[in-house]
Amino acid sequence: MELLYLVIILNVVKFCLPNGEIVTYIAPKNCSDHEFYVPSLMLCVLCDDRKKSSIDRLSCICDKNNRFVNKVCEPCPSNTIVSLDRLHCLKRTNVSCGSKDIELETEVNGSALASKSCIRCAPGTQPSVDRAKCLPCPVTNCTCPLTTHELLLDGTLCVFRANLTSWPDEKDTYIVEYDAVSVTVESDYMKKHLRAFLHECVKMKHRTACEALGNLCAIQMYKDERKVGPCKVFKDYRRIPTSSDADRWPIPWLYYGEGDASIVLNRKKITAKYSIKPGKHNSNLQLVAARYHLNGSFINISELRPVEFHLCPGLWSGIESAFRFGARYIHTCSISAKQMVSQGTPEPIFYDLYLQYNDGKSNMLYAIPLLVRNIKVGTIYPNKGRDTSQWLLTRRMFLLDKFSGVSTKIPSSPTVIQYLKSIKLVVQAQREIENEGNIYPPFIVLEYDQITNENISLGDVFLVTFTVEFYMENDILHYVDMGLGILSGCVFIWSCIHTWSESKRCGRITIDFWTVGQFAITCCSHFANMIFAVCLLLAVHTLVFYKAQSVVYILLPSQDLEAVVNRYVVVAFLLKIVELVRLIWKQTSIDIFLVDWEKPRILPNQKQIGTMTTQKQTVSIWRSYFVANEWAEIQTKRKISLPMQLVFTVLLLKIYGLENWAAAEPEVHLNRISYRPISQLLGLGMIVVVFSTVYIVQWLVTVAIYETYIKNCIQQFVDICSLANISVFILSAEFFGYYIHGRSAHGFSDTDMESLIGQLRKEEDNMVRHRGLMPGTENQTFEMTVPSSLRTYYRRVMAPLNSIQSKQISSSSFRIKKVDKTDMARIGQAYNNMNKFLTAFLDHALKDLDYEIREKTFVEKLLGIEYSDPLDKGVFFIDDGHSFDQVIFYGNECTLIIFDLMMLSFFFVLTENIVLAGIFTGLIMKAMSIIRTTFGKRNLAKKTLIDERFLI
């Protein structure tokens, strides 16, 4: 009768339910006192006459000891009891009817008896369920003949054996496979209930039994590959129910259709608009759950609180804001296997989940699909891949299962326990302007794990995670790829220009392996800068617009897109390492010579009384040593202090809480919220903003104040060269280099303190010639392209020294040990020859070797190239006063600070901790500075012929 009644109800309402995805939200509490609730249809149905709904609104009954009078319940007197038909009050007696008796309460004409009486049913009949009448027995003698029938449910259900042929009583029927721990269990619960549920659902159309099969199917991770199993019932109903599926009742909706995932997740049927501002209407998602017991009986349907989504014990921080629109939520806890067994309800609770929203007229429920990662088809896990067309979506979930793993061999305790390892609610917002605030159907990603008795005995601890992620699909990745593609062409052209310039400076005309290698390294450098710049722009753009928006304009990109950006950062850093290694190698292998302009002076010397003689004054080498030490000291000098840069960056981000601006929620605050994860993309944006701000402030203080009014180490080095009467001749390439003109305006500097002070005073009073290379100018520093003959002479002079150094130098440094007189003379002669040659060249004293001085054209400055051909005549280009800093760290500040930022971002991506990232960056840069200093000193000693022991 119940089945027929519900089928009629279904036929009445089927035209109102065009799609089972969306239904009007009616809970049992919404039913009136004269209606009862139908869970599968989510409808309130009017009770029969003379009945009212029960307290739970799931049936129509009268309260205990009440009778129906005029369609209402009326209490019976205290000395009477209500009849079974709820119409009469009978005198209370001690009569107890037997199992084969019916209880007679009325006469044949319908009038009530004074008290209840018992009548034995005739042979071949048995009492009805309500014990109001005798019904014919379905089997002979009202017993269950084991020859033709079978007892199920512990002997309470007798089923004709022919009706069970599709579900044989075999061991494989009750096997549950636990793939995570590679264990199979013959389930005691399955053995006792599965075949009974199958019979009651398929043959007898019992709604509760069909719901129980859905629960068992969810427990078995939706496997239907066995001949007999609960999931087989749903094989023909793998689709969203519609009005044409009235024949499927009472089988619940458990599966979506194969290949429907991409369609289902991109529907635009949810009409509610959500707000990103807290406290506004629809600023939180509202989820509703229909709950069922293991045996399929309905518990209730009500709002789902986030706390029900998790097995973590205790109170969670901010759990009520987990469904906040536009923000991410994450909570992870560790729970022991023993605690897992002890917590939760004895039987698992099963959930069908819905999103509640208002369509302007009434509250609606939209079915939320589940993506269970553990679903296995053959040997493949389709839900672990990213191809949505292969996903298999389902409807029912549970948190903890301690029943299916109870073995028939050991029924006292479970052999395996299934638990929900991670659950993630994923919500995608629509990006169209006209659909602002609308969302696509949310879905939930589930991953289960298993616990064995061994885990329990060892006290193993397991992680449980609950995550909520909102994102909006956009063209960011497309724009990134497009930007990288367009900029790659520019980078390629720029790399070609730089490689050509470098080849020209090195005197290479044809394309050889060296040229190809230089081009590859140059491409690495420029591509690293390009990739990193695109990532930084993306991070800062997302940070600014996500935090500043008042309407839903942008949400955080998915974690997959953030992973792509992280990979780009890693690639950019690795490419940048190539450039920095080349930079250090080039700077530690330059040819450098200290040109001494000091001339020996003839001084009078009195040997005997009355006798005057003259002798040449020896030129001191200590001036060259002093300049060499100053050069060694400024090799790793930078415009900013890196330790201070890192300390202030970490201080602002970590101590003052600016890193909390990168929390995955639209608000900006300085306090850390544990349940709001730091978005790596926003974190990268904050690092860029803070790091750049600190750098700009530090650079302005250094350049505008410190170097202008206090100390400029680069300019001081040039001044020291002038005071020491030493020029610095640097060849960073075969035919290209830098020149610092340090010739003293006084003609000599190897003198006493009084004379030196007098010279400085004259220079202050403008009583001497200018320091510049050209008369009447102050230009002391130049870029230069040297003639090939000069380079040839340089190599010829230095060639003999290489053989001497290979014998006399220890540990690749220039330390003279036991040098014989011949080699010592050769070293001195080589030094003097080179010094004389360079002074003559600089004084235009060589007939076939000369140079000209001019400024670079705008194009040459812009592209960093020189049009002049250095084969016959050199060219000295007037620079800005410190072009020579290109062969030390000071002139490569842009490259170094970009590398610092890349390294900081790289370690942040790896560790997700700005403090560790800052420490690693500082340590590595310190190590690189030490390497640069060490090899720089060795090269300086080798090329200037100065013993390294004099370099402090």
UniProtKB/TrEMBL annotation:
GO terms under cellular component: MKS complex
GO terms (BP aspect): cilium assembly
Spans traversing the lipid bilayer: 476-497, 518-545, 565-585, 678-705, 717-740, 901-925
Matching InterPro entries: Meckelin
Entry keyword set: Membrane, Signal, Transmembrane, Transmembrane helix
One Pfam family, short name: Meckelin
Annotated signal sequence range: 1-18
Record's protein name: Meckelin
Classification lineage: Eukaryota, Metazoa, Ecdysozoa, Arthropoda, Hexapoda
Gene: LOC112683707
